[in-house]
Amino acid sequence: MVPRFDVLDPKVIDDPYPSYAELRAHGRLCRVPPASWGVTRHADVAALLRDRRLANEFPADDPQFRMERDLAESVFKRIIPTRAPADHSRLHQLIVKAFSPGVARRLRGHIAELADELLAPALDTGRMDAAADLAFPLAATVVFELIGMPVHARQEIWLRSGALAKAFTPFLPEGDRAEADASLRWFRDYVRDLVVQRRPDEQGDLMGRLLAAAAADPVAYSVDEIVDNVMFLCFTGYETTMNMVCTGCEALAREPGQWSRLRAEPALALTAAEEFIRYDAPIQYTARLALEPIEIGDRLIRKGRSVILLLGCANHDEEVFERPDRLDITRSPNPHVGFGGGVRGCLGAVLARVEGGVVFERLATRLSRLEAAEPAVRVPSALFRSFSSIPLAVTPA
């Protein structure tokens, strides 16, 4: 029988990897209630991420979108990941410019300066919260500058970041829904106030370019579409990088051998960042809709069924990764699927890689000691592997 996988099981939320190992041992598919198929193996997940028989558009009555109807029928119907191919391409051409490899490379020096600025207080006090003092402010500042959000909004958004994560989570306990809806509504109103005050600027930040496109073609680009996509990109733009930096800091504090290796070879920072994404994927799964029947092994996924691609499970596939449950910052090659893939893959993947490489190089260069001062505190989430606090004891190099 095909096993069931309950993404809301407290054991899964606390540590999904033992459950993932059981799923892979049973086969390539599992059942994800209420009516979805889960894909467990790396080869299948990697292929399906690029399979045009799967789409991101979901029917309005899909059980995954259980938020208030006005939000479900607006926000999640306008953001770029869920758009039909023509609209996705239209938006992608504008948005991708803000997160291009060239932009990411040019920001490397700025990211290093920002990392040093955020590390400076810890060098004096010997204490740092890797989540609140480093990962979030660095990731948020970079993406806010690219989009055109005021950097002073960081603190207010940080206070709501846990609730916002719930708002973008398909599977959510009903008891969390009211908080998620309220946070999403607040963020949407906040971004709308910014958008209506901004002027179009074809050569400016992302918000200015989107407004310029709307001024040139108001039929194609509505204010609501701009607001919802700016909001979505702000959240996803910092969430993935923040979670990767948090995972890396927590893992290095827990594994002194890996920290010593990085200290000895700061040039390993880039491969370390890739390994942190594989080892504990910032986003654990992504959902798709089957547009046609799809065969996986001896099973048939019927048209119209939701398909959950279990990225975190695929990243620990024993057939691809040697000793997958072991952290190895020298792992190469590392064909993880932590950023998704295909045309619907993470828009900020290149930028996140640059940020990760810079941050872990600065940590290895500026610190001689990095240890846990108190236990790290996770944000309970089925979708995101995130932390609300990672207290560290550090010593300057």
Topology:
Elements: H1 10-14, H2 17-26, E1 29-32, E2 36-39, H3 42-48, E3 54-55, H4 69-72, H5 75-78, H6 85-95, H7 101-106, H8 108-125, E4 127-129, H9 130-147, H10 154-167, H11 174-197, H12 206-216, H13 223-254, H14 256-264, H15 269-279, E5 286-290, E6 294-296, E7 299-301, E8 306-309, H16 311-314, H17 349-366, E9 367-372, E10 377-379, E11 386-389, E12 391-396
Parallel strand pairs: 2-8
Antiparallel strand pairs: 1-2, 3-5, 4-12, 5-8, 6-7, 9-12, 10-11
Helix pairs in contact: 8-9, 8-17, 9-13, 10-11, 11-13, 13-14, 13-15, 13-17, 14-17, 15-17
Annotation keywords:
single chain, 397 residues, alpha+beta, five-stranded mixed sheet, three-stranded antiparallel sheet, 17 helices
Summarize the structure.
With 397 residues, the protein is α+β, with helices and mostly antiparallel strands. The protein has helices spanning 10-14, 17-26, 42-48, 69-72, 75-78, 85-95, 101-106, 108-125, 130-147, 154-167, 174-197, 206-216, 223-254, 256-264, 269-279, 311-314, 349-366, and strands spanning 29-32, 36-39, 54-55, 127-129, 286-290, 294-296, 299-301, 306-309, 367-372, 377-379, 386-389, 391-396. The longest helix has 32 residues, at 223-254.
Structure explained in plain terms:
This protein has 17 helices and twelve strands. The protein is an alpha+beta fold. The radius of gyration is 21 Å and the shape is globular.
